[in-house]
């Protein structure tokens, strides 16, 4: 059976799309958070408050990893950059796991194993 016609191909494709979409949303929130902090945005302004509130659950596990660098109110939140990296790595790992569950024929598996052995 060719892997393009496998019954697992479409759900696998949709699953990877969902993972990358969710990661994109989280990364966008964290990028906005990073730049709002860096540019000393007023935290009581509606937009800033909205972004800080939405991004907080994603940033909180990392908030005490590094010291916060501050200069005249501008905050360089290294932890937000760390959070972005970690979430990207987690998404990449999930997508790799999805591909491990993909149906593969014996000839395809043999070819991939030969390719890995020769690298």
Secondary-structure-based class equals: mainly alpha
Reading the helices and strands in chain order gives: HHEEHH
Could you say how many structural domains there are in total? 1
Helix residue percentage: 55-70%
Segments where pLDDT lies below 50 for 5+ residues? none
The whole-number mean of residue pLDDT values reads 87
Biggest sheet descriptor:
2 strands, antiparallel
Q: Number of DSSP strands? A: 2
How many helical stretches? 4
Radius of gyration, in angstroms, nearest whole number: 20 Å
Strand order, biggest sheet?
1-2
Query: In percent, how much strand structure appears in the residues?
Result: 5-15%
Distance between the termini: 27 Å
Choose one word for the global shape: elongated
Model description:
The structure is a single chain. Helix 1 packs across helix 2 (46-59). The chain starts with 8 loop residues before the first helix and ends with a helix. Strands 1-2 form a two-stranded antiparallel ribbon. It has 119 residues and is mainly alpha-helical. The radius of gyration is 20 Å and the shape is elongated. It has one domain (3-118). The longest helix is centred in the N-terminal third of the chain and has 30 residues, at 9-38. Helix content is 67%, strand content 5%. The protein has 4 helices and 2 strands.
